[in-house]
Specification:
Layout (H helix, E strand, L loop, with lengths): L1 E11 L7 E6 L21 E4 H9 L6 E5 L7 H13 L3 E5 L4 H10 L1 H8 L3 E4 L20 E4 H7 L8 H6 L1
This protein binds iron/sulfur cluster (SF4).
């Protein structure tokens, strides 16, 4: 199973809680002014890699707490990322997914496209919404602007309303 990515970071502490492998997916439609990763916008850019190769990188990262799908926008490639997420969960690790869509938009897209719904259901924490330069705040944990939310996806899907994810370490900075 193939996907296009801009790169992989094997040990990050700024893209979700704890030490994480970060997959920077290729392709993003949001065009946020001030985006820090413009090289990820072209869906034909970056390079092709197999899900198996990414899982090997994860296997070779024994100290991580989880894996982060960043971008780009991961929801442009939901099938291979869901496959990876399921394997990651089997190893007892968690999944953080960034998206320029708002949670409510992802839920709506998932009604028409089951693969979108499946990636959302395979995510533990969703960091949602476009980067808004006017709401930029360097004190925020794991995100660039105040409109972006850290969402507890399993609890939000179960209750039918957005429930924010909370972490003691995040509370220090939020
Ligand atoms: S969603 Fe992220 S990668 Fe896409 S344009 Fe906005 S800031 Fe850049």
């Amino acid at each position: 199973m193939q996907l296009r990515i801009a790169g992989i970071t094997q040990e990050s502490v700024v893209d979700g809680p704890g030490l994480r492998v970060v997959i920077f997916t290729q392709g993003c439609p949001h065009q946020c002014p001030g985006c820090h990763n413009p090289q990820t916008h072209d869906p034909n850019g970056g390079y092709s890699i197999t899900a198996a190769e990414i899982l090997t990188v994860i296997e070779n990262s024994p100290l991580i707490r989880g894996v982060t799908f960043s971008g780009g926008d991961p929801f442009l490639q939901p099938k291979p990322l869901t496959f990876i997420a399921k394997q990651v969960h089997k190893r007892g690790l968690d999944i953080v997914t960034y998206t320029g869509f708002r949670f409510e938009e992802v839920v709506a897209l998932g009604l028409r496209r089951p693969e979108i719904k499946e990636l959302l259901q395979s995510t533990d924490v969703l960091i949602d919404g476009p980067y808004l330069a006017a709401e930029r705040d360097l004190r925020l944990a794991f995100r660039g602007s105040r409109n972006q939310r850290l969402i507890d996806v399993p609890r939000s899907l179960k209750s039918g309303r957005v429930i924010l994810w909370e972490d003691p370490a995040a509370r220090i900075w939020a």
